[in-house]
Amino acid sequence: MRAVIVAAFVAFALTMALTPLAAKAFRRLKAGQPIRTDGPQTHLAKAGTPTMGGVVFIFTTVLAYVAGHLVLMALPESVDGVTFNRPTGFTATGIVLIGLFVTCGFVGFIDDWLKIRRKHSGGISGKAKVLGLTIAATVFGILAVYYTGSIDSDEISETVATPFISFTSDIGPNITEIGMIVLIILLVNATANGVNLTDGLDGLATGASMMAFLAFMIIGFWEYRHWCGGAQPADNLCYDVRDPLEIALIAGAAAGAMFGFLWWNTSPAQIFMGDSGSLSLGALIAGLAFASKTILLLPILGALFVITTASVMIQVTSFKLTGRRVFRMSPIQHHFELAGWSEVTIVVRFWIIAGIGVAIALGFFFADFLRIAG
Predict the structure, then answer these.
(1) Which of 229, 249, 218, 210 is nearest to 65 (CA)?
(2) Where does the chain cross the membrane (predicted)?
(3) Residue pLDDT, tens place only, 207-227
(4) DSSP annotation of 164
(5) What is the sign of the dihedral through the CA atoms of 315, 281, 339 and 353?
(6) Which end is more exposed in the chain, N or C (fewer Cβ atoms within 10 Å of the end residue's Cβ)?
(7) How many domains does the chain have?
(8) pLDDT tens digits for 97-153?
(9) In a 3-state reduction of DSSP, which class is residue 232?
(10) Is residue 343 part of a domain?
(11) CA distance 260 to 53
């Protein structure tokens, strides 16, 4: 647990320190966020606010992950005769999750950069964005279902993901490795775009993502404490997960980075995360669900992202079929803005919705453990 705490603190401290410096640098480079003229008029005052803040917390999360491993290397392998089975080097899970996080962030960075150069809210096309995310998700999927090695040769033969559908563990059916790769592509695209659509108000996506990462940190650490690959697995009360401590470590680092970034991103935001931030966060959240074998738990844990995405789908479908709009504007947070709600009120209430989703997901996770234990 010490490694997870250190990783979270390092990410928090570095993000707190580097974000205002990045904001000043981006401001000098005139890397301001272009604002849609057809959106809420209150957003026009945000024109010129530095964007691409995601670059900062991607960098700090990776550094914090490395710091966590330095702590693991320094910890004793055994205490009072009890040997701890934990990774010291970078594992398969860490490699594929960090790789997915960084590459999807790069797709978002290209989008942000084009918006800045063109001084227009339109970056790369929607098809190009989906293509970029699909390529990153495909590589992640192939490694997740086929790659078994790790840099420190810990002789674990399991893969990061299995061909089985999971809820709090594998429950079936077997959809084959190819089927799982397709599912990974779909869910990475869906979650990345869900976070991207939610990122429309100051601090909204940051706070919601932070809650999701805290949940995965708890799930990962609980799986590690009841790990089938640990020193003393408890019969059927163990989780058959590739590297549960890595899951907790990466999720903790990401949560810490979100805490630090929220300080500067909350209303009135001094910097925006941009697509480089929102796409990377959504992709990592999806990746953590596959690594922790909580695939069907993901829509509950990310309830706010599901609601936001659904509002856009309902709006588009209704307009194409009937020529009428269900909401004043989509995503749904802008509907409430046009209805007269203040930005802070919307953000806090949506955070409550995100928190409820996380609480329900954790409730299902622990209830299933108690059911098996009973």
Answers:
(1) 249
(2) 6-26, 47-68, 88-110, 130-151, 171-192, 204-224, 244-264, 296-317, 338-367
(3) 999 999 999 999 999 999 888
(4) E
(5) positive
(6) C
(7) 1
(8) 999 999 999 999 999 998 888 776 677 888 999 999 999 999 999 999 998 865 444
(9) coil
(10) no
(11) 12
